[in-house]
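Sequence in, structure out. Go.
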Amino acid sequence: MRLTEYVHLCLEKRLSKGDCVLDATAGKGYDTLKSAQLVQPNGQVIALDIQEEAIKATEEKLTQAGLNTLCEFHLGNHGEVLKEITQTFDCILFNLGYLPGSDKTTITTPKNTLSALNQCQNLLKANGILFVTAYRQHQGGLEEASVVENWMHRKTAKKWFIQTVNPAKAETDLYPILWIASKSFLNLPIYSSDKHE
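Output:
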């Protein structure tokens, strides 16, 4: 199972009609669309991305599905945009790396991601859930994943519930890695690593 498929499986278990979701790295819009499908008709999804191409692709996906009225779209760096958001969310999603099929030099960075994660602790509802998928093969990916890992470790010390899903068979494998975090108990489907992403 691909990590993206597993995240969507978890969303199906956790999200309900009327929930609020923040997609902090909209990318091609797949997580935004899935979230909107699950929280409709009266939920809300906020999608943001640093690339205009990503916002356009996401907005187009939601419009084609007739769900764009549930969504707000924000262009900007997640580390900065989240400073302007005050509402709380049932779910927050991150896919760290670069936009598939685009310029690989435009990537999320450890500094901005750390800033965004620090803000998430206040934006996440008490029973909310945070998904962070880090892609590690590109330049800077390993460093960013390390920053996320350290952040998650600190949250464990503060009694957060953390689950790590790492499909790698060896330390040298740079498959994507997923962290799932919540202030409340995680009751999630079992991940099956029958194939890699």
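Check: The first helix runs from residue 3 to 14. DSSP finds six helices and seven strands in the chain.
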